[in-house]
Amino acid sequence: MTINFKLPKNIDGRRQELPLCARSLVIIGANGSGKSRFSTALARELGDRAVRVSALDALYRPGDNGETEFERLMALMLHDEIKSLLAYKLSRASGEAADLKRTRLDRLIEMWQEIYPGNKMLIEADRLVFARSGTDDRYNASRLSDGERAVLYLIGAMLYAPSRSVILVDSPEMFLHPTVMMSLWNRLELLRPDCTMVYTTHDLEFASSRQSAATVWVKNYAPEQAAWEYSVMPPGSPLGDEMYMAIMGARKPVLFIEGDSVHSIDARLYPLIFKDYTVRSLGSCDKVIESTRTFNDLKSFHHMVSMGIVDRDRRDVNEVEYLRRKNILVPDVAEIENILLIEEVVRAAAEARGRNENKIAEQVKSRIIKMFAAEYREQALMHTRHRVKRTVEYRIDGRFTTIDELEKHISGLVDEIAPRKHYDELVRLFKSYIDDRDYRGVLRVFNRKSMLPGSNISGLLGLNGRGAYVEYILRLLREDGRAAARIRSAVKECFGLKS
């Protein structure tokens, strides 16, 4: 198959065509250069021929039904396998000559076991399970690493791509170890010779490996013209020093955060605070922690630093310190809403609105401390439950050779954990925050989604509408003036960072 379509508009007004000999294309550029927009514009141009593939979205972005694309793809594989078996049995039962056809799942298993020769992929009780050679242990896909699940998804996505489609792959290096990445994409290109592969990446090593691909170097995006500054290099062209320095010098480290990329406060606030990072929303805290670990394990390959942010919630000092050692930032407040109630943030907003910041800050602090005083025992109980749960999970995870050992161990857990003692200590601590008017201490431990409206901060600042205060803070950060500097500095200090 040859590529015979035009690329999006260049800033010089031309729309370049790709070399007709190319079967694949690499779109490469620094973070912020506009390469993702370029890929999206190309997909629009291609219309129904375009198939978008993203391991990050497939593994971590649930759809409307709560399932990820990865989960739906695995379910579809099993459904098609059952249909194939039923068709075969019905044909045999009716006396027709029938052969058991090779299915997509057969091809997936074959390629999976070629890439991971020490692993097995099996069908048991209408579900896919996995095992390692030499063991009888069976486990489902949730216990696979991000890289292993990414490989499963990418193989499946290629198998289901329509004939003669153009497959646009976002970050083909994502989650993949270098020993797997090159081999996988070589195999996938051979698997679908009828399709055109378009890779969007900032990974120079991956781009260099696609010797038969044409390369589009996206340098900049001009929104007023809806056009890009880019150059096209035919297959086999070396990546020059200018490209190498531009991409490596401009690449930003990655910051993984909780929440979704559209509606959560996290996704709207953190890119304006941590402007030197590429911020990616992953949903749950567990996914943030695992993805940060995976990225940093592969740092020697992709040359990128990765950090994560998770809410403090009810984590104790030891949990927080452990996470920070793993490059996971944890704020000195319980959750994202509390960040917006940090005294210096409130003061900056009040000053920007022309209000008396001392008066506004004191009114907000008084309301929050009053709210906390009404339920500090309930908060202490929730913190205690969290500690008990974490301790039990950790302690039960030990190895026991007999049921007697496990029983004996469990019987001593209550005395070891001492929940009432911990609860009483927290009640005393929380009461001291109230008596001493320790506002920072309250923000550190108070988990309550209603804190923002309960503080009446919007009313005190003369802002109208639900969410008006959040929108105002975001507007101040975008304007990047004195208030933004104060807010940014206060938030970074909350994470133990210098502004």
Question: TL;DR of this structure?
Answer:
The chain has 24 helices and 12 strands. The protein has 499 residues and is an alpha/beta fold.
Taking pLDDT < 50 over at least 5 consecutive residues as the criterion, the unreliable ranges are none
Q: How would you write the strand order of the largest sheet?
A: 2-5-6-1-7-8
Radius of gyration: 27 Å
How large a portion of the residues is in β-strands, by DSSP E?
A: 5-15%
CATH topology of the largest domain, which one?
A: Rossmann fold
CATH uppermost class of the largest domain: Alpha Beta
The CATH architecture designation of the largest domain is: 3-Layer(aba) Sandwich
Largest sheet: 6 strands, mixed
Q: How many individual domains? A: 3
Global mean pLDDT: 85
Identify the quaternary structure here: single chain
Count of helical regions: 24
First and last CA, distance: 53 Å
Going by helix content, strand content and strand pairing, the class is alpha/beta
| Helix share, percent | 40-55%
Protein model, in words:
The protein is of the alpha/beta class. It is built from 24 helices and 12 strands. The chain has a 6-stranded mixed β-sheet, with helices on both faces. A 4-stranded parallel β-sheet has the order 10-9-11-12, with helices on both faces. Strands 3-4 form a two-stranded antiparallel ribbon. The protein is globular and about 80 Å long. The two termini are 53 Å apart. The relative contact order is 0.09. The mean pLDDT is 85.
Draw up the topology in text.
Layout: E1 24-28, H1 35-46, E2 50-54, H2 55-60, H3 69-93, H4 104-115, E3 119-124, E4 127-132, H5 146-160, E5 166-170, H6 178-191, E6 196-201, H7 204-209, E7 213-222, E8 227-233, H8 241-250, E9 254-257, H9 265-273, E10 278-281, H10 285-297, H11 299-302, E11 306-309, H12 317-325, E12 328-329, H13 336-339, H14 343-352, H15 357-373, H16 376-396, H17 403-411, H18 413-417, H19 419-435, H20 439-445, H21 451-455, H22 457-460, H23 468-479, H24 482-494
Parallel strand pairs: 1-6, 1-7, 2-5, 5-6, 9-10, 9-11, 11-12
Antiparallel strand pairs: 3-4, 7-8
Helix pairs in contact: 3-5, 4-5, 9-23, 14-15, 14-24, 16-19, 23-24
